[in-house]
Write a structure and sequence with these properties.
Structural class: mainly beta
Number of strands: 10
Strand content: 35-45%
Distance between the termini: 71 Å
Number of helices: 2
Order of helices and strands: EEEEEEEHEEEH
Helix content: under 10%
Length: about 170
């Protein structure tokens, strides 16, 4: 007989949401906004009584498979998501994520932000970057959405955009 704590995570029986790319734009020097739709309310995948922990959109910059949340894959993009709607909506749900492109160091224990030239080198030969939203709740197996693909051409276009400097930072 297995001890109680081994293998006790419940299956959530929630099908992977279909994610559809809408757009990509630069927000600041190191932050980019990704917009997409989903056929499920990703922010409420788990009910409050399921004790949701949180979720994260994660993208692979070097492989075609999307890394899991505990992966030590070296080059990733990641960010929290939020809803663009002010209240409850119907499908499709519209979301955005402020993502950063990072290099994981020390088996993922630390990270550094990737610079534009590094991103150009990593993404130059790719058609798209695969992303998955992953959410967790206490006592449940992790939820993973379907794959969202960001066109590499859109990322490369935004790397050329110079972020605006807020008026308070200009020294005026």
């Amino acid at each position: 007989m297995l001890p109680f704590f081994l293998g006790c995570a419940k299956n959530h029986h929630i099908p992977p949401a279909e994610l559809v790319y809408l757009g990509f734009s630069r927000q600041s020097a190191n932050s980019y906004q990704l917009s997409f739709t989903a056929d499920a309310d990703l922010l409420n995948i788990f009910k409050p009584e399921d004790s949701p922990v949180g979720g994260l959109l994660r993208c692979s910059l070097v492989g075609d498979a999307v890394p899991n949340a505990h992966s030590s894959e070296r080059y990733v993009a990641k960010g929290l998501i939020s809803s663009l709607a002010a209240g409850p909506t119907v499908s499709p749900f519209v979301f955005h994520s402020s993502i950063m492109f990072v290099e994981n160091l020390n088996q993922g224990r630390s990270q550094r932000v990737l610079q534009a030239q590094e991103l150009r080198e990593l993404l130059g030969a790719r058609q798209s970057v695969p992303c998955v939203y992953r959410a967790t709740a206490y006592g449940f197996k992790a939820y993973r959405s379907g794959v969202l693909r960001i066109p590499t051409a859109d990322i490369l276009r935004e790397l050329a955009v110079v972020p605006a400097v807020p008026a308070t930072d200009r020294g005026d």
